[in-house]
Each structure stands twice: as C-alpha cells, then as structure tokens.
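Please complete every field before forwarding. Incomplete forms are returned to the sender.

SECTION A: IDENTIFIERS
Entry label: holo-213
Bound molecule: pyridoxal-5'-phosphate
Molecule representation: SMILES string

SECTION B: INPUTS
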Amino acid sequence: MQKLIPDGVKLVAVSKFHTVESLREVYDVGQRVFGESRVQELMEKQKVMPSDVEWHFIGHLQPNKVKYIAPFVSLIHAVDTPKLLAEIDKQGRKHNRRIPCLLQLHVAVEESKFGFSLDEARDFMSSGIWRKWDHARLDGVMCMASNTDDRAQLHSEFACAHAFFAEARAKWFSDDSYFNICSWGMSHDFDIAVAEGSNMVRIGTSIFGLREY
Ligand SMILES: *Cc1c(COP(=O)(O)O)cnc(C)c1O
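SECTION C: PREDICTED COMPLEX
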C-alpha cells in the first residue's frame, strides 16, 4: 500500500473493526500509524499492541471521552466543535502534553457529516480563542468528501479544504513550524485527495479488506 502512495504522504492504516491479529500482520510489515474511530476499541488495542504504534483517533469524538485517550493519542483528526478543542486542551494540561489536533471541515454535500463549515472555521480561527488552549495544538485540517463516484465533485471538495488550509496557514500560523497536515483521502478517493494537496491519507478497506460491522 505504501508503494502506491507518493513520498511525503503519510499513511494512516484505518484498523477499526479489525482484529488485533490483523493489525499485527500490518505492523509486522512495517506499518506504525494506525487509525481508530471508537474510543473503547482504541483503548483495547492500544493495551496489547507494541508501544511504538502511533495511534490516531479519526472518528467523531465526544468531549466526555477525550480523557480516555489523552494520555497516549498521537493525533485527533476530527475536531468538529470549539467545545471539543477546549476539552482536549483541558485533558492535555492534566497529562502535561500538547495534543496534536486537526480541524475537521465540512466540505461534503451530505448533511450528516460532522465538521466546521468554511464560515464557521473562519469565524472560529479569527476569534483567536484557540490560542489560549495551548495544550491542544492545531496541526492542520481534515475532511471527508462526499460518498460519490463523481470525480469532479471529489476534486472540488478536496480543493476547497486545501484552499482553507492555505488561507489558515498564511493568516494564523505563518510563524509556526506546525500546522502543516492535510488529512484527506480514503480507499476509494485517495488518488484524487493527493492530487488536491493531501499529505495524510486514511486507508482501511484497501489494506484490511471489508469491515464486518
Ligand atoms: C473508516 C474511515 C476511513 C477509512 O475508510 P476506507 O474506505 O475503509 O479506506 C477513513 N477516514 C475515516 C474518518 C473513517 O471513519
């Protein structure tokens, strides 16, 4: 899988719903970054997998569950409300960590997807309130595109996320070495995502096969 992905693009192996044995196989061929979307499942796997795994939380996260993953999580992809970021700050402070996070943008046409609209994201960033929450560090932007085969649509949604990333980087992080992650692209659309500036792809099905829910 890593061979299909260009240099400079980080692969998150999305292992949700797969067994520890399957994770082990992928670990054994060199993969160290794994993504999970449920807190309980992540905690169970983290306990038994080797300690050099970098765990990413990629799903919708309820603020009251941040405390369980705060001690060890390497990146929280889907920060979709100011409240969640404030809680991550609070838990980061407790554990004396600065927890890396991505702002989730809502760029898809589907109503059900979480995330900040572009206007909400701009308002939130302009408010500057996040600067006080210095135990949560904004490292970039994440999005999920619409569930469609319309490649033009996918290009335009990812391009929209990238434009916001570039704007935010220039406006609010021009002096910082962080804020450089663009997390978009899954099994069926990662080639388009990479063409539209992604440098972190989250791939499950193409690595582990279909999930059994
Ligand atoms: C499940 C999931 C993925 C992986 O999707 P695949 O189609 O299996 O590659 C990526 N991102 C998020 C947020 C997910 O929940």
